[in-house]
Amino acid sequence: SPQPRIALADGQQIPQVGLGVWQTPNDAAVDVVRTALQHGYRHVDTAAVYGNEEGVGAGLRAAGLPRAEVFVTTKVWSEDQGFDRALRAIDASLQRLQLDAVDLCLIHWPAPHRGLFVDTWKALVRAREEGRVRSIGVSNFEVEHLDRIVGETGVLPVLNQVELHPRFQQRRLREAHAERGIRTESWSPLGQGQLLSDPAIVRVAAIHRRTPAQVIIRWHVESGLIVIPKSVTPSRIRENLDVFGFTLDAEDLAAMAALDDPGGRIGPDPMRAR
Ligand code: NAD
């Protein structure tokens, strides 16, 4: 497939633009995933807690692509943290997806008050050794959580999937990732749709005769981020991958840089969440 892939520290590669399926109902996920794959997507981001792994798996099979061409990510939910529970949760995810292995498995949230993310990380390391997951990473980790798991196991997460969009650009965390060789993946890359009517974004989109969604996804791509926009609408699914025929110039990038806001977080604070 034509879109770029990003090299991970463990030698694997991930397609830079993927399809997010949070809040996509299980029975809708079949058609959504099949449609996305037919339109050129090669990367799907799900999670046990999304309740749609069966539908995602059915969509993968319906598209009929060779397994090696599609990159599938799932995540271990906070209630399944701990060594044994996490291993069982990964098995259950594979069972629902009807896959022998996922390409990437993440710890969904550090949930630091549970005190289990190091044991959970050890389970992901084990699952990788057993061939049930090809790459392992984390989500919503702060620098102290990253350094804790690497310090205790010597195993680097290939990426950290965090809330990231023009209104919440995570510059400090991205720098810490770069220093450590960890890739950054953007969740809610469109700010859950809230950024699509931002006047600065709308202006840049008009200049390029592109949509606001395309301008924002292009910004993630040019920023070297892995990006997983969500839509269930076929025309939008297609639009969101069609971001390789234009580039943002210095003026566009300056306008978008100025949108960063320390209070721009939409989702939960990882230090306190669940
Ligand atoms: P998003 O930023 O991708 O926005 C999705 C919404 O934007 C859609 O529901 C739709 O309303 C709108 N939209 C999308 N494309 C559009 C288009 N072309 N034109 C007009 N409107 C459009 O929001 P998200 O779903 O929160 O994030 C994307 C993915 O990130 C999720 O599906 C999930 O896979 C992942 N995620 C992970 C975590 C985590 O904790 N790891 C948390 C949230 C989301």
Automatic annotation (TrEMBL):
<dbReference type="InterPro" id="IPR036812">
    <property type="entry name" value="NAD(P)_OxRdtase_dom_sf"/>
</dbReference>
<feature type="domain" description="NADP-dependent oxidoreductase">
    <location>
        <begin position="18"/>
        <end position="260"/>
    </location>
</feature>
<dbReference type="InterPro" id="IPR023210">
    <property type="entry name" value="NADP_OxRdtase_dom"/>
</dbReference>
<comment type="similarity">
    <text>Belongs to the aldo/keto reductase family.</text>
</comment>
<dbReference type="InterPro" id="IPR018170">
    <property type="entry name" value="Aldo/ket_reductase_CS"/>
</dbReference>
<protein>
    <submittedName>
        <fullName>Aldo/keto reductase</fullName>
    </submittedName>
</protein>
<keyword id="KW-0560">Oxidoreductase</keyword>
<dbReference type="Pfam" id="PF00248">
    <property type="entry name" value="Aldo_ket_red"/>
</dbReference>
<keyword id="KW-0521">NADP</keyword>
<dbReference type="InterPro" id="IPR020471">
    <property type="entry name" value="AKR"/>
</dbReference>
